Structures are given as C-alpha cells and as structure tokens.
Amino acid sequence: MKTTFKLFALIFTLFAFVACSDDDDGDSGPAEFTVTAISPESGTVGTEITITGTDFPTDASEIALTFGGISATINSLTATQIMTTVPAGATSGGVSIVANGFTKSTPTTFTVLSDLVEATASNIPAPTTGGGQGAPDEGPFTKFSFETGAVTDSDTEWDIAFRATAIAINGGTATGTNDEPERNGNAGVALIEDVLFSEVTTAEGLTYVQDASGAFAIAPLSDQGWYNYNPATFVVTPIPGTVLVFRTHDGKYAKVEILSYYRDAPAEPNAFVDESRLYTFNYIYNPNEGETGLE
User: Fold this and answer.
1) Backbone conformation region of residue 259, classed left if phi is above 0, alpha if psi is from -120 to 50, else beta
2) Are 238 and 84 in contact (CB under 8 A)?
3) 19 pLDDT more than 50
C-alpha cells in the first residue's frame, strides 16, 4: 500500500513539473524577429519596397514601420516579408521596424531619390554677332543649367551653352572660336541616332565626348550634328530621331530632344517670317548623384 502511494505521489509530482514547464514556455513571450534585407535599396517617394526577415507578426497593426522617422503603410505582410511604399517626407537613412517589443533596422540604409525632372525649355536665345553667311560667329554663348532648368550667368554652374547652331558643353577645352565660355566642369555628350526620345532610358554604357581644340563635341554643321540646313528654304530643322544624352558639369545626367530653332516652335518654320536662333527642346534630368536612369 505504501509502495502504491509513493508511486502515485511520484507520478503526480512529475505531472505538476511538466505542467509548470509548459506554463513557463507560454510565458516566454513572442519570438524576436529578424530583418535580413531591403529591396531595392533606393527609390523615389511611392516606390514599392520589400523587407525580408523572419518571425514578423502577421497583423500589420502590430508593426510600426518608419523611413527616417516617417511612418510607412504596410501594403501586405507575411511572417517573412513586409511590402510597403516609400512615404512622402521620407529621408535617406535607416528603415526602422518595431514589433513584439523589439526594434530593428534594415541591414543596409535606404536612399530616398528625387523625382526625375521632365520639362520643355522654350525660346532659349542663341544670338550671334557674326558678319553674315560664311563669317565666323561671335558674341557670348547663352548658358543653360539642367539643375535649375533655366538660363544662367554663372561661370561654373552651367551644363550646355548656345550660340547660333553651336552647342558648347561645360567639359573639355575651348575650341578656339571667339567668346567661348570657360570649361571648368566635366560635362560630356553622347549623340544617339534613329531612336525615339522615350526609347533612351539610361545614360549608362554610352561613350561621352567633350569639346576639344578645334572641334565642338556636337558638330555645329548641317547633317553632322543635331540639325539639317535646307539651302532652298534657308530653314534649320532638327534631325528626326536624334537624342543628345548629356553628362552634366557635376556628373549627373540628362537627355535632350531638340524640337525647334525658331521662336515658339512653329510646325513649319518660315525663315523669312519666324525669328531664328531660339531653341526649344524637351529634356529629362536625373538630379540624383550616381543614378543613370532617364525614364
């Protein structure tokens, strides 16, 4: 009888121990999650972002997600993946995730990019004081900055410059013509033929040419650069399918499609009626350091 009682007591003790152990496991709290990657690592506001890891809560209300302190909305969620978009006002830096009493950051920082600038520059003057047909062009070039999207008088903060049919770039050296601006940047240009403006999507992989002694990088001659000249009508017309991709003076990128050489870009210019030496062009400028995308 005593043996039976001792055996019963032993079984009861073991049962109680196991029960206590189970209770202890239940009190251990939620698992600590991990963050392994963020993709992509850069993007503009509104870009879709994927954060991967383990043991994320599957209820979005249990997660606080911020980009540089700015709250982001979780679009979809699993235990291993968070889908979100870059919120307005976000700044470059760490992406923070707070959940289950833990705070973690992505293993790499996120770079918030500025939107591409897509615009049309109209009636950019390119006067010359040359002595007429066959005489050399003279007078200052009109300088243009892609960063500001406007004509500039700066000696350094310019990218391209216009005088008559010549386009100078702020890179290389002076060609030797009169009244040229000083080249003090690292601009270059690649001329692409037989393409649509929309088809040029990146500045990467192109060969960039700079102005040099005796030669502009963009030849200012009919059929050799950006335009054709019709001696019967005296009209200068941009060559269809020609896109100019510029590396700016400070190493950023822009693409240009010249639309007209006449005031207000008439569809059928008349050299005897329409004022010339006024450029109109479409451009897309990427203001982000090290980024080559142009769409």
Assistant:
1) alpha
2) no
3) no
Kindly list the domain boundaries of the chain, sorted by start residue: 34-112, 117-286
Contact 262, 286 (CB under 8 A): no
Residue 227 tokens read as 């335009």
Once rounded to an integer, what is the mean pLDDT over residues 121-140? 84
Q: Which residue has the tokens 């020609």?
A: 242
Task: Write down the residue that tokens 């850069």 correspond to.
Answer: 42
What pLDDT sits at residue 235? 97
- Give the model's pLDDT for residue 31: 82
The three-point CA angle 194-199-201 to 5° equals: 130
DSSP 96: E
List, in order, residues 6 or more apart from 55 with CB less than 8 Å away. 31, 32, 33, 34, 79, 100
Cα–Cα distance, 275 to 236 (Å, whole number): 12
Cis preceding linkage at 40, omega within 30? yes
pLDDT tens-digit readout, 170-180: 999 999 999 99
Cα distance between residue 81 and residue 70, in whole Å: 20
What is residue 137's predicted lDDT score, i.e. its pLDDT? 87
Record the tokens describing residue 136, joined without a space: 């050399």
Tokens of 249: 């003076």
For the domain 34-112, what is the CATH code? Answer: 2.60.40.10
- Count other C-beta atoms under 10 Å from residue 43's C-beta: 17
Mean pLDDT for the chain overall: 91
Average confidence (pLDDT) over 179-188: 97
